[in-house]
Amino acid sequence: MTDSSSIRFPDGFLWGAATSAYQVEGSPLADGAGPSNWHHFSHQPDAIADGGTGDVACDHYRRYEEDVALMRQLGLQAYRFSVSWSRILPEGRGRINPAGLDFYRRLLDRLLEAGIQPCATLFHWDLPQALQEQGGWANRDSANWFADYAHILFRELGDKVPLWATLNEPWVVVNDGYMHGVHAPGHRSLDEAPWVAHNLLRAHALGVQAFRADGQGQIGLVVNLEPKYAASVGPDDAAAMSRAHAYMNRWFLDGVMLGSYPDELAEMFGQHWPRFDLADMALLLEPFDFLGINYYTRSVNRDAPQNPPPHAESVRQEGAEYTEMGWEVFPEGLTRTLQWVKQRYGDPPIYITENGAAFADPPAHNGRVADPRRVEYLRGHLRAAHEAIRLGVNLKGYFAWSLLDNFEWSLGYAKTFGLVQVDFSSQRRTIKDSGYFYRDVIARNGL
Ligand SMILES: OC[C@@H]1[C@@H](O)[C@H](O)[C@@H](O)c2nc(CNc3ccccc3)cn21
């Protein structure tokens, strides 16, 4: 039963949609750009479910003006995108590629002309391959490479970007790229993973310091959070839930908000968990302006001692609705997560920087794409976000994931999250029913 009571968000609440460079741009080597580790990884045999790569994607590098026009049609107030590091610095550091900067200047100018606020993420997983070959995030120098890159963007683009994010979801880089090997660079190393996490957070902190010296506007960190539940009332499953919570939700936020890592991590990594310098942990506390939270689902966990950290596995819930990603539709988890962040980390300003769902959409017919499940997913999560505001959470805005159907990393192009359908054979865009629903939400500033 859909709750039909109308709700209104606070005046000035920011409504946007999000993408990332490697998932939408295509033209990965155009105009002097260097290869990223995702360009390298996606071209490895069997790395991507459907054999897809980011070589073309949504062709956004060339069609960005058409896509900004779509954003205007949707009435977006903001657009969250990421900058391809290897377009700016083809070797990851040193020589700057002016054509790379020029692309983002053109995109920013079109956005500002359209009255759309840019929200730029510096790193959304696509590390220059040249730096990956020097150890990537496992190399302690990576934090300095990132700070130098950030400094260039703040200097060259800073007058056009009011909202910056340093990193998108460091947890996924560690978990998928270094623990399970299903994302670039495809490593499986209990020794590398803790150092990669630490260097990512050092990079974030040095990036914020660079911003304080050269930037304008506000800067934040984007993390993915999932509320963890126990599959049973037994102690083993309760402990598994606690480990899973520490591993996904607390690892990075405790690091940058509390200056320490959860004790459970040293316990679950054992001899693989390093001793971190106190000076490093003090650096991590560099204050930033907002927290970006990416919310999609919850997970229900049971003990799984045979698994790598967190020695837990998720349990499918009978009777629950699931998306094409196998993620339970659980909007109440968003309210709970936002409240948890408020209470644990001192009520920071928060943007929901990603929320959305992959469903099997029908092909466009007569200029329409019926995606009722996505409409209901968005409706339910917007209600949950509003409930969090009612409970006192300092929620400043919401970005739907995603503006466009796009390259879903190791899953290729089969999983579609867009408010706008992309026919990848013709590159034709069609606004889905969920896009028109979201347009009306923005126009009403509510439901
Ligand atoms: O999977 C949908 C999106 C993805 O396209 C974005 O690039 C990325 O920022 C993103 N993060 C999540 C949520 N976190 C997550 C959890 C487990 C594995 C992978 C991602 C979902 N998504």
UniProtKB/TrEMBL annotation:
Top-level taxon of the source organism: Bacteria
UniProt binding sites for substrate: Q23, H124, N168, Y296, W401, E408, W409
Cleavable signal peptide: none
Stored SUPFAM superfamilies: (Trans)glycosidases (SSF51445)
Tagged with keyword Mitochondrion: no
GO cellular component, one term: cytosol
Enzyme Commission number(s) of this protein: 3.2.1.21
One GO term of the biological process aspect: cellulose catabolic process
InterPro entries reported for this sequence: GH, GH_1_N_CS, Glyco_hydro_1, Glyco_hydro_1_AS, Glyco_hydro_1_beta-glucosidase
Reactions catalysed according to its record: Hydrolysis of terminal, non-reducing beta-D-glucosyl residues with release of beta-D-glucose
Active site location: E169, E354
Protein name, as recorded: Beta-glucosidase
Native source species: Methylogaea oryzae
